[in-house]
Amino acid sequence: MNRYWYLKVLLILACVSFYMGLQASTASANRGTYSTTPTTLRGTWYYNDQKGWYTKISVTKTTVSQMNQRAGLVVSLKSHRVKLIKPNKYGYWQIKVKGYRPIVLKSAAQDGQPAIKGRFAGKVFSTGTPVYAYHYLPNKLAKDYWTSIPDEFLGSWATHKNTSSKWREYKLSFKKSAMETTVRQYPGVFLGAIMLGTVRDPVDPTKSSLIFSKFENQQKIYWGCGLRNSKYLPGYDSRIFIRHIRHEHQNAIKAYGISQYFYKTK
């Protein structure tokens, strides 16, 4: 009888030890993940090589985006596909996104100013070259040379969410001299691009890199907006063609080639 209880106690202790070890390993695995970004990374940061290539990095409490005029990645820490990992020995935070290279960022200083040093993410970024992102653009154009976007397009616009595999969620955002486009790949993960009217065109430095021009097609007035030239997009027309309309008793944008309508979100 004593032997029976002795074996039973050993078995219980073994189970408890295994459970505690499992809990410890799980806690250790989760110890380095965070649900919000550090305040030192938050803000909107710009990088410009003064030769026509620029990047915008935007960090909020729960979102991180890296965008340039060719492509970008916008992610939410609330997505199960995204994990924020504590800094490595070099001080870099990693935003790991399932299916893509991680976004790697750290707080730094450059020329006596706060900056972020990082590495591009996603399959669209082939080199992973480090960049410095500042609060300003060194070769910013004077307002006289900006390509201004018409007032009726200003703000953020999005298609209605749909679970159908044939439909994706598209977003457009317009400021007076900037345009951003994104498309949802997975919940909490968007791909996109940003085009800035305040930076110089790499071919003609007296003009804005962003062009926004009106034309008529089948007796309908469209606006074509995108990069002025294709230096960074060889053989590819970056422009999208849109018009402002009323649909279902509300303001909307219709984009050529997209069956869905964009409705204003803010």
Quick tags:
266 residues; mainly beta; 13-stranded antiparallel β-sheet; six-stranded antiparallel β-sheet; 1 helix; 11% helix; globular; disordered N terminus
Could you characterize what this model shows?
It is a single chain. Mean pLDDT is 80; it is low at 1-31. Helices cover 11% and strands 42% of the residues. Among the domains are: 43-97, no CATH class; 152-265, no CATH class. It has one helix at residues 2-31; strands at residues 33-34, 43-48, 54-59, 63-68, 72-76, 82-85, 93-97, 103-110, 113-119, 131-133, 155-158, 170-175, 178-186, 189-196, 210-217, 220-227, 240-247, 250-255, 261-264. It has 266 residues and is mainly beta. The strands form two sheets. The protein has a 13-stranded antiparallel sheet, with no helix packed on it. A six-stranded antiparallel sheet has the order 1-6-7-8-9-10.
